[in-house]
């Protein structure tokens, strides 16, 4: 799948090749400067500045900071069956929880797929008591995420060359250390807008700008956060949002997961416990493309079974404000 050069018109929004390449650049590095993006992509800096101002100012693209994978605690995938007519209330209740960064409702209107960060312990009130006791809920399936092959922060529009991506990607390595109050205050500000300048962050956290600049450099060099550029998939011409619950022979699970992580349509791939051992989240142009993915891509990786759940509405997705870790 390659969007390069295609003109996409969704409602009143026109996204041309330049817009798509700028979004892809922000996916690589959400804090990349206008000048750096222009230089790497071979574009005029004034054009880049104007286009980014429009994309970011109108809310078409939103760039936030998220925890690096190394700081994300264990998680569980929840599949909650709900009585028709009660779906919105249950979904809203789950989305309001800080430990649930991911909530999708099915197009069929009878189930919710969510991710519970921190994992469920035997005494977890939400998974084992509150949800099953809710009269609107007919069943709850909880699967522990064993391994993450690809997360939302890894997804990239397929419009840049490998060389462009390599130059734009920060390339830093995670350093495991204790974060202090100032670190976490800076990260919290970036969690709302990853492109905030040091001066604005300094005003918000009540620290000198010089201090904030030093902390930003250190946090970035130590990969204490990653950036994520949010775009409504339909505005990219990707009208089908789906979660696939896949069964792969254990001996082929790792190979299949790694292959799917490289697929341009996959924005999430996880090895999980339960009857299905691989959870895959995809964005596709249409149902025919989804059909080819199931019958060719998944089948070619040795999948023996796959259940497809079309997403009717993404209530909450990972990387939104409030998900950065507190000091340990």
TrEMBL record:
Domain of life: Bacteria
The keyword Glycoprotein belongs to this UniProt entry's keyword annotation: no
Keywords, ordered alphabetically: DNA-binding, Transcription, Transcription regulation
Gene3D superfamilies: 3.30.70.920, Winged helix-like DNA-binding domain superfamily/Winged helix DNA-binding domain
InterPro entries: AsnC-type_HTH_dom, Dimeric_a/b-barrel, Tscrpt_reg_AsnC-like, Tscrpt_reg_AsnC/Lrp_C, WH-like_DNA-bd_sf, WH_DNA-bd_sf
Pfam family, one: HTH_AsnC-type
Name the UniProt record assigns to this protein: AsnC family transcriptional regulator
Residue ranges annotated for the HTH asnC-type domain, each copy included: 15-95
């Amino acid at each position: 799948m390659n969007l390069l050069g295609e003109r996409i018109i969704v409602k009143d929004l026109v996204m041309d090749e330049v817009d798509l390449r700028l979004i892809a650049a922000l996916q690589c590095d959400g804090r990349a400067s206008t000048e750096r993006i222009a230089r790497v992509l071979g574009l005029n800096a004034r054009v880049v500045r104007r286009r980014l101002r429009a994309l970011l100012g109108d809310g078409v693209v939103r760039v936030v900071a998220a925890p690096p994978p190394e700081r994300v605690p264990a998680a569980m995938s929840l599949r909650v069956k709900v009585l028709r007519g009660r779906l919105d209330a249950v979904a809203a209740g789950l989305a309001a929880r800080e430990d649930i960064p991911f909530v999708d409702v099915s197009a069929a209107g009878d189930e919710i797929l969510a991710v519970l960060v921190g994992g469920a312990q035997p005494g977890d009130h939400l998974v084992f008591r509150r949800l099953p006791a809710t009269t609107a809920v007919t069943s709850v399936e909880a699967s522990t995420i064993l391994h993450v092959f690809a997360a939302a922060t890894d997804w990239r529009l397929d419009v840049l060359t490998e060389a462009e991506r390599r130059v734009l990607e920060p390339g830093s390595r995670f350093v495991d250390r204790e974060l202090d109050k100032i670190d976490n205050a800076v990260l919290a500000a970036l969690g709302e807008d990853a492109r905030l300048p040091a001066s604005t962050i300094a005003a918000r956290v009540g620290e000198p700008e010089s201090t904030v600049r030093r902390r930003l450099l250190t946090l970035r060099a130590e990969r204490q956060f990653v950036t994520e550029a949010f775009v409504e998939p339909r505005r990219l011409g990707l009208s089908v949002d789906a979660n696939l619950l896949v069964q792969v022979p254990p001996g082929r699970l790792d190979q299949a997961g790694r292959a799917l992580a490289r697929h341009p349509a996959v924005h999430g791939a996880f090895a999980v416990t339960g009857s299905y051992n691989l959870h895959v989240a995809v964005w596709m142009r249409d149902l025919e493309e989804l059909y080819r993915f199931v019958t060719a891509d998944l089948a070619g990786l040795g999948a023996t079974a796959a259940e497809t759940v079309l997403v009717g509405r993404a209530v909450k997705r990972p990387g939104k404000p409030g998900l950065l870790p507190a000091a340990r």
